[in-house]
Write a sequence for this structure.
């Protein structure tokens, strides 16, 4: 450790000896991130202002991108020489363990083929089903019983609250690759303080749904466009306890789903138009962020981002430059949407409610609309749905990490390259 500023030491080459590991200190994560950031910047990378974990390096030959999560790095680009040079620089500065092509990252698995890439969590799902005892349960076709409302007090309080909270935490992490369960998991997560037996029953229904398709994940086709389009929707007064609305939106790059969110608002809306407009304001901000991210990656997007909304009143409010009494209390959202509409950041289009893909993020649906929307989200199941010996997991793809509290810091790097693979890889 270097001496702190202001301390007079006769020999400048002296350093402090630590009595305990630096990894036990609260500022260890920040110091590690600063050191890694300075190393990458000195190598020629620039830090993205849209995503502080993303580092980009553009040259005349190509580009190289690094995505950082603590000491796990994903390295990709179209210049193999620059990728190898970056690995050598990091190897000289730190202790690097090169894990090769990206197959497993933070519990998420990647399968590759000539058609594209699939991001899924089959190992995580099977471990969750085995831990909860639902590995041999009867599969469910949909997530929740769509005609059964969820209350906060109509039931018997659970004695083991910790198990319910642990289950919801595991399901929340699974939503990174399973957008189809995002609404159900988010709806049940608001009762973590005092869950009842009905909440646990709905949670077990989600586990039965996962049993039907444990290898389901997001598919990113190799032949795709870079045009961004989004869907915005809300469910007015959907909460039976507080009557607050739930907003949801999702964005696609071509046909690949890249971003989605569900949020229960903090205030009560006075009309369905106001509810739809709040969802539209959130979607407009996300569209602006995606354009900033595309700009950092060097991907051109000359056209405005198209956002589909199935509420004509919200579209009229966005196009009307005059405020009146009914929209005076939502002027902040009006300014957000209208400003991005005027500077050609977004483009609003109406369409039929039956085609609203964001419905799956705002309400419980019957089996037929649910399956239709899931098919349109680009979700793919690369394994057989049966678990009777058909699913095989290879644990060799998981490289154990060293304990940072007992051994030196080590960086795990994963490389993705622009190439075709002969067969679909399954684990």
């Amino acid at each position: 450790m270097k001496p702190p500023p202001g301390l007079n030491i006769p020999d400048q080459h002296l350093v402090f000896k630590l009595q305990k590991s630096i990894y036990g200190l609260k500022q260890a994560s920040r110091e590690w991130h600063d050191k890694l950031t300075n190393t990458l910047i000195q190598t020629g990378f620039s830090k993205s202002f849209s995503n502080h974990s993303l580092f980009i390096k553009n040259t005349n030959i190509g580009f190289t991108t690094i995505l950082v999560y603590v000491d796990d790095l994903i390295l990709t680009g179209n210049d193999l020489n620059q990728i190898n040079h970056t690995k050598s620089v990091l190897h000289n500065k730190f202790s690097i363990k090169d894990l090769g092509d990206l197959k497993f990252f933070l519990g998420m698995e990647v399968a590759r083929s000539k058609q594209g890439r699939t991001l899924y969590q089959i190992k995580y799902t099977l471990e969750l089903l085995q831990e909860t005892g639902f590995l041999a349960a009867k599969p469910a076709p949909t997530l929740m019983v769509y005609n059964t409302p969820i209350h906060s007090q109509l039931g018997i309080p659970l004695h083991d609250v910790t198990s319910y909270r642990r289950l919801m935490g595991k399901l929340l992490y699974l939503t990174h690759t399973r957008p189809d369960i995002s609404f159900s998991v988010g709806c049940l997560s608001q009762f973590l303080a005092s869950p009842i037996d009905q909440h646990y029953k709905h949670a077990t229904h989600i586990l039965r749904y996962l049993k039907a398709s444990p290898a389901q994940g997001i598919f990113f086709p190799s032949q795709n466009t870079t045009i961004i389009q989004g869907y915005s929707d809300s469910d007015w007064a959907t909460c039976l306890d507080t009557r607050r609305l739930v907003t949801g939106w999702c964005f696609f790059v071509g046909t690949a789903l890249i971003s989605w969110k569900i949020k229960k608002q903090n205030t009560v809306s006075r009309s369905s138009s106001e509810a739809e407009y709040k969802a539209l304001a959130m979607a407009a901000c996300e569209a602006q962020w995606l354009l900033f991210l595309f700009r950092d990656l060097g991907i051109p997007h000359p056209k405005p981002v198209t956002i589909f909304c199935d509420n004509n009143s919200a579209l009229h409010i966005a196009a009307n430059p005059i405020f009146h009494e009914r929209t005076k209390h939502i002027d902040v959202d009006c300014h957000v949407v209208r400003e991005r509409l005027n500077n050609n950041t977004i483009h609003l289009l109406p369409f039929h409610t039956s085609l609203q893909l964001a419905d799956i993020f705002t309400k419980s649906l019957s089996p037929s609309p649910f399956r239709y929307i899931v098919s349109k989200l680009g979700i793919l199941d690369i394994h057989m749905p049966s678990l009777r010996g058909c699913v095989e997991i290879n644990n060799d793809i998981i490289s154990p990490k060293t304990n940072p509290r007992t051994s030196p810091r080590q960086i795990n790097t994963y490389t993705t390259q622009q190439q075709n693979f002969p067969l679909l890889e399954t684990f």
